[in-house]
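Marked as duplicate of an earlier ticket. Keeping the data here for the record.
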Amino acid sequence: MIKTITNFKFKVAFIFISILTSSSIYAQSNCDIYCPNDFAVVANSNGEYVVEDYFANNLVTLEECNPGAVVSQSPAPGTIMGLGEFEVTMTVTSGGETDDCDFDISVIEEQSGDCDFDCPDDQLGTTDSAGNYAIPNFATNGALVVTGNCGNFTFEQDPVAGTIVTAGIYSISLSAESEPGTSSISCGFNLTVDETLNANSFSINTFTVYPNPASNKINFSNEVENATLASLTGKIIYQTKMTNSIDVSYLDKGIYILKIENGNESLIKKIVIN
């Protein structure tokens, strides 16, 4: 059970504006792998945590990679870890070239206090280069917020995690119940999946977002009809219409997804708040 997920760190992909919040800046490549930032998980009743397949559950993603790209993970999925911190290294091999990234996971003991579930808000996702999107597990990607002592809670989601969809709006229903049965939730929300488009697909080819990184306000070179700002887990944070700027002074530092719409055309950018 993932307790918290902090901000994410990304390498630069050439169709996005994306700069790390740390001091490391990575060069462009034909195939990039993206890791989450460090996060914590809660150990089971034996004080253990089973390492997941972080590429399969969409916490680690690829950008601009060939279909034959091979992803490896260390430690391997299924490895049992005890309390403490360990590093996960992800490597992609494509066309004879490799790229890698890493992140730390802290395995912590169950916290005391009553179990509580907080249903996700509406979520935003983008398709891959083939026009597909794998619906994530909203219990493990941080969208479902779980606090207190919930034990090994049960979780159901419809459509199930891993379901492949194309661009569109989907209704997601989920339910969760704590092990002793003292707390439960049943709710639904919308998942909007958009196509990933580059700047040439936008009617305003000279359209820019500045400054990027930003700390107080993001400006647009042209007024846009709709602007949506979401976290990297897909949670929609802010939406506005007919604007040429967005106030970001209240946001936590990190990388966010910005969707801009004019008529039937849209543009997805990744921006950083520092």
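See parent ticket for discussion. The mean pLDDT is 78.
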